[in-house]
Write a structure and sequence with these properties.
Length: 363
């Protein structure tokens, strides 16, 4: 005869697989994400109101809301670590035909000791920043902070390119500038009327932002704050997803800066942090609702999503860096080329610098 203790132990062991399968139901819910501190919100609101005040009738000079005949590109770097590829970007900017065609702005997480590269275009371009967390609305706030600062800083800033510390250029500055500002053929999806010019100046410009309406995880992400938390301002059929790295016109930068309605929804804490990536939803949803025809619905930053790890894209390493890789990363079905790419480990800098003159900046 088996002892009572043996029978109970054996029964428990048999039930372990079932308990394992049911365990997620009995585990406590994930801790809701930390809300943005009120002082940070108030600081941002003051900044955004200043930027929004520049969009009145007396300050609207063209389709891009810039009075400067030499339109500029604002390069907005969002980082929580050192700018490892600063030497490559430095060479990119040094090769610009003129210094009055671009501005650089850096939002660096103040809780991390980020080095300000001396003697480079980055050294004095760090803006007042707040702490950021991955998969949280703090990344939305940081991007809006960059946009607002660039809008206020220079009325000639016409395009705003959001980049990370892991992004690298795939072309020369001249190619990037021409593609965004002057080319009538770069966007393969545009109609003839959208590429029209008058006096050598483009009449219409679009924002290059990825906007995806069909995704198998879209509903889970939508309901991450609660089934009806986004209603009525953002019904599910209006919810979109896309890359947080994009290039937008000044017109759309102002749309983002002025928004208060959708922000109140997207800043809500999530109860399913594993399905919560507000930075990938806020911008495509907002601009899709505000001006869908003014967006290309694709991004100019190439990302490899094969072999992803914990939501991060594929990361390139030094042995993979080659001319063939650069050519492959440039290939696009929507434009003549991708302009930027991510994600690269810091030790990729040396082989990338070795290709700078002969491949990357040779268009």
């Amino acid at each position: 005869m088996f002892s009572t203790q043996f029978v109970l132990t054996f029964s428990l062991l048999l039930s372990l697989p079932i308990l394992f399968l049911l365990a997620p139901r009995f585990l406590p819910p994930r801790r809701p994400s930390v809300p943005i501190p009120l002082p940070d919100e108030l600081d941002d609101l003051s900044l955004f109101n200043r930027a929004a005040s520049l969009s009145g009738p007396s300050n609207t000079f063209s389709h891009l809301s810039s009075k400067n005949p030499k339109l500029k590109i604002a390069f907005l770097f969002l980082t929580n670590s050192d700018l490892r590829f600063a030497p490559l970007w430095q060479q990119f900017f040094e090769n610009a035909p003129a210094k009055n065609l671009y501005n650089v702005y850096v939002h660096a997480d103040p809780s991390v000791n980020v080095t300000r590269p001396k003697g480079t275009v980055f050294e004095f371009r760090f803006i007042p920043a707040k702490k950021t967390y991955r998969a949280s609305p703090t990344l939305i706030s940081a991007t809006r902070r960059l946009l607002a600062t660039a809008v206020i800083d220079d009325p000639a800033n016409a395009f705003f390119a959001v980049l990370s510390q892991y992004c690298v250029p795939l072309h020369s500055f001249q190619y990037v500038y021409s593609s965004l500002v002057t080319s009538t053929t770069f966007d393969l999806t545009q109609s003839p009327s959208e590429s029209a010019q008058y006096g050598g100046v483009r009449l219409k410009y679009k924002s290059f932002i990825e906007i995806i309406s069909k995704n198998r995880s879209l509903w889970k992400r939508y309901a991450a704050r609660g089934r009806f938390a986004m209603m009525p301002e953002v019904p599910f059929e209006k919810f979109r997803v896309g890359s947080q790295f994009f290039v937008v016109t000044r017109k759309h930068a102002l749309v983002v800066i002025k928004d208060r309605t959708l922000w109140r929804k997207f800043k809500l804490p999530c109860y399913r942090e594993d399905e919560c990536f507000p930075e990938e939803h806020y911008f495509p949803t907002l601009l899709s609702m505000a001006d869908p025809n003014g967006c290309t619905h694709y991004t100019l930053t190439k990302v490899n999503w094969t072999g992803t790890v914990n939501g991060h894209p594929y990361t390139y390493r030094p042995p993979e860096i080659s001319a063939e890789l650069i050519y492959r990363l440039r290939e696009s079905n929507f434009s003549e080329s991708y302009l930027f790419a991510r994600k690269f480990t810091p030790d990729c800098l040396k082989p990338l610098m070795g290709l700078a003159d002969s491949v990357i900046f040779r268009d």
